[in-house]
Amino acid sequence: MTEPADVVARLYELPPEQFIAARDEAVAQARQADDRAAATAIGKLRRPTVAAWLVNLLARRRPELVAELLDLGRALRSAQHDLRGDELRELSVRRRAAVGQLVAQARKLAREAGRSGRENLPLAEVEATLTAALAEPEVAQAVQSGTLTRAVDYAGFGEAPKPRLRVIEGGKPAAPAPSALARSATADKRRPADPAQVLAHEKSQVADDQR
Description:
two-stranded antiparallel sheet, mainly alpha, single chain
């Protein structure tokens, strides 16, 4: 019986349309070997989307480029936290170049895996996932594992406010919650006026009317 880690690596390098059949075959082989734990673990593996599959290919076949990108992400977060503006601008230029290089590599790996040159690949989702990995350590870890099942989107960059991460599954993202300032303004409008101020205002109006 092949080691479960080797089975996982093989499955997540396969094109998504081949994933289910290959997973079921691996489960059957584990059962034949009387390895129930492996059969259960393999059976729980989820098929990746095409975008997630492309990111997994990058993690497994271009690990040095992915590692460089994630190192750059750590440097970016540090520069932003310390407000090092000049360094942040330089790193941002490098970030765009690194993400662009990886997206190009994803396209190349897809062609090598048999994808048609005329197929519309979800490279925007690949780019969004790589950008999220730059900003959020949890996403970086998931990307580097090579077992991503969904693309990840990221709104903004940095630690304040906390990054808003969401799985890309189609449809429009939920409307953001109102800011604290907006909530405060709304509360002010609804808050009853001070009685003394109301009385003074009414006296002023009466005086004006009597003139």
